[in-house]
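Technical note accompanying the year-one report. For the benefit of new consortium partners, we illustrate the data format agreed upon in the data management plan: each record pairs a sequence with a structure-token string. No post-processing was applied to the example shown here.
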Amino acid sequence: MNTDIMLDDKNILTMKLLHYFITEKNYNPIILQGVENEIWLENLNEDCKVVRIVSNYIHNDEQFSFDVFKTKRIIRKIKKKTFSLHMNVMSIFLDMGDNVTSEINEDPKLMAIKIKDEGDIADNDFIKKLFPDLGEKMEYNENGFELFAKITSDINRHNREDAEKIENVFKNKGSYITYFLIALNIIFYLVPNILGGYNGIITDFCIHGPSIRAGQYYRLITGIFLHASILHLFFNCYALYVIGSQIENFLGRVKYSIIYFFSGLIGALFSMAFGHGVASIGASGAIFGLMGALLYFGYYYRVYLGNVVKTQILPLILLNLGLGFMLPGIDNFAHIGGLIGGTMITMALGVRDKSSTFERVNGWIIATIFTLFAFYIAFVYTA
């Protein structure tokens, strides 16, 4: 008897819709407590970020109005959790009675679709605009139990593949580049101090605008490996260990290396442009770039990171920027430049399995324009 219920027309239609949205459009189910007879699916990379498949019988206007109220309340929570300012939602009602006479699409962001069979799909304007291939993809050669088995198998396989991708992103792959960069910072500090003449090293290799404009361009890189004191070195190396190891694991060693040196370069250019000729040293510009990369990565994986972006990453960035403005002797312009540079170059490099080609191309365009702007203000405008 349970099998007969499972294979009735409404449930088969539900399975076909799930198969399409999960395997073709990469939507993921949302776990919601207390919500019955409806399935919520989410894909933050689609124009329609949430799709609801509602099998509950909606028999009159009052019940429909309550459904809209409940949906808006849940969407507010999802928007808050995912840092989404706008969220288009499509509710697909599979069992809406003829007694519902109110306008079901008063809110353009809450699209309500009434479907009784597959023939209704081709006639709906919202579906034709957002999911034009839905009707075609719901055509199967299998029927009955064979169809149920195929859909179940495809969804399970897709979920396994997704789980493997997520596991590969977050698993520990080693932090070799991070350890190498920490070692370089330590060597650049300890060896000259042991041999003597560290002050001369700082004088000759620090970030100093007039010297760099005079042709000593190597200072743009060497300056990010020098530190003013053992405490300065310790804090930067610790931050590099905590943040750098995460970025190296999440994005890979090549992207991580590019982000580090690009952020350090942009930070140095900002220091030149706004530092009024004062010398600057330290890896903090590059480290702020890694914070920007972590923020960008966290935005794409916010569903899996939960509230980490809001409760840890953003407060860490804001706290350090605030301290930079309040405490003397801190080159906060290098921090700001590194933060912006790190975010932009991460957008250009892309986040695996998340960033589209369009987003990466835009990232390279923006990063290139911003780099030219940084060189201009450092070498021409403030010269």
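Partners are asked to follow this layout when depositing records. The mean pLDDT is 88.
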